[in-house]
Predict the 3D structure of the following.
Amino acid sequence: MLNMIQQAGAGEHHILLPAIPELVQSAIILAIFFIVMLKFVYPKYKEVTDKRATTIREGLERAEQSKQAIADANAQSELALRKAHEEAAQIRAEAQESAKRIVAEAKTQATEEAERISVNAQRQLEANRQAAEISLKTEVGMLAADLAENIVGEQLTDRELSARVIDRFLDQLETSGEKESVKK
């Protein structure tokens, strides 16, 4: 190779090596090309790439902020949902408690009403029994008076005497009825 450079310097032209003036000219053109590139093209390239990098960085930051906002919104919605479930459970519990209270009140009112109806029925039954007893005593007394009149052959005109006779007869009937029920 050294031999080729020496031959090029001697003025001989070699096929693989260009002539020195061509080398200098190419070097100057190449230097001008690099200077122009460094002065004009590289700053524009640097500006575009910096702008692109800034845009990408800002986009990534916005994406990260959006992810954080979405995570916060999800957390808030989960919290709201949990609160809604708790509130619904509380409302259900209150409703069940209210239903139990209403059922208990209704049972109490029904029991009181049944007792009142039972007491009224007992009173009515007692009143009916007493009325039937009085009616029965009166009819038995009249029958006894008719019987006594037929037996005696006289009409008992004295009301007080009739009442005493009837009362005695009824007392005898009651004592004989009590004796029979004790025997049974």
The mean pLDDT is 83.
